[in-house]
Amino acid sequence: MRGIQAAFRLERAGFTLDVDLDLPACGVTALFGHSGSGKTTLLRCIAGLERAPGGRLVVNGDVWQDGHQLRPTHQRPLGYVFQEASLFDHLSVMNNLRYGLRRVGGASARGLDQAVELLGIAHLLDRKPARLSGGERSRVGIARALAVGPKLLLMDEPLAALDLARKQEILPYLERLHRELDIPVVYVSHAPDEVARLADHIVAMDAGRALASGPLAEVLSRVDLPIRLGEDAGVVLEGVVVERDAAWSLARVAFPGGCLWVRDGGQAQGATVRVRILARDVSLALSPATDTSLLNSLPVVVDQLADDSHPALALCRLQVGTSSSLLARLTRRSAAALDLQPGQAVCAQIKAVALIG
Ligand SMILES: Nc1ncnc2c1ncn2[C@@H]1O[C@H](COP(=O)(O)OP(=O)(O)OP(=O)(O)O)[C@@H](O)[C@H]1O
């Protein structure tokens, strides 16, 4: 059976992890949630670093743990990327990578070459870690995890220790992994922007439990969950660049259900891109406005209305076409003034659309 089946129950003083998840066979699954929600604990259970007897873990048909057996970490074909890449200072980058290989009994050199190429570190192989920047260290740490040719890659907030500039340096490499790796990746993060850029599937964690587990667009557009994202509630749409307007430096992105103008990010016509639209940047009108500076306005149907974190606010899920959703955050007073009801056709006016890769 393809995919990852992960069921763990682990008791600690004041905290219980209790999850039963089916995760996809490939692509990036983000474990997302507040600090202390149990993301790292779950990742460590998957790695076998945390013993959870009675747990069950099957990775693409291979049983790593069940009631009868519990493979120790070194017998699980996985790569683990920690927040801080702890490299051996006395070894060159190349020897740090080879050290990881020895641990698994000399996996193929192909894995190592591929990891070096994917992370763009060929020019760093002879250096000692002391002569690497923070971003370069991170790339070496990720390459080391990949060099062993793992069947599953686990990443625990790999960007958390980096400043904004370093994050921007690493994200394109992570996006490349996302496109080119054919193994599943489980990625712990509490940063909504990272999740929006990298994840295909999200597990929303809260107090040791999975509140939701599903495809990115579906989970992000649920009105009962975005409350926990606060200001960052919003959706991600995947689309294709269908037009580039050089005169105004804009690009038109078509997604199932409509088109949006975005700032041209340099992507070629035909490229697949993601755009992120925050709920606070979407307002609603009963009819399309003509005298407005907004470029993006879409016919939508009100799908669901829910209370938001503040009593003045409501969240509204909107259906765009047959398969896409938007979220709009508005005051409850505005919702009442427009007499918004599920099934009602309205116009979504979008103040900002961020192209996220
Ligand atoms: N070694 C440990 N012994 C006992 N309790 C622990 C241990 N490690 C973590 N905890 C507790 O388990 C709970 C879950 O912690 P965990 O690190 O999994 O959360 P997290 O979602 O990864 O948080 P963060 O985003 O801050 O890393 C917390 O209540 C934490 O205090």
UniProtKB/TrEMBL annotation:
MF-aspect GO terms: ABC-type transporter activity; ATP binding; ATP hydrolysis activity; molybdate ion transmembrane transporter activity
Regions crossing the membrane: none
Residue ranges of domain Mop in the record: 291-357
Keyword 4Fe-4S recorded: no
Pfam families for this protein: ABC_tran, TOBE
SUPFAM superfamilies on file: MOP-like, P-loop containing nucleoside triphosphate hydrolases
GO terms under cellular component: membrane
The keyword Cell inner membrane appears for this protein: yes
SMART domains reported in the protein's UniProt record: AAA
InterPro entries associated with the record: AAA+_ATPase, ABC_transporter-like_ATP-bd, ABC_transporter-like_CS, Mo/tungstate-bd_C_term_dom, ModC_ABC_ATP-bd, Molybdenum_import_ModC, Mop_domain, P-loop_NTPase
Residues covered by the ABC transporter domain: 1-232
Keyword field: ATP-binding, Cell inner membrane, Cell membrane, Membrane, Molybdenum, Nucleotide-binding, Translocase, Transport
PANTHER family: ABC TRANSPORTER I FAMILY MEMBER 10 (PTHR43514), MOLYBDENUM IMPORT ATP-BINDING PROTEIN MODC 2 (PTHR43514:SF10)
Name of the protein this chain belongs to: Molybdenum ABC transporter ATP-binding protein
Organism: Hydrogenophaga aromaticivorans
Lineage of producing organism: Bacteria, Pseudomonadati, Pseudomonadota, Betaproteobacteria, Burkholderiales
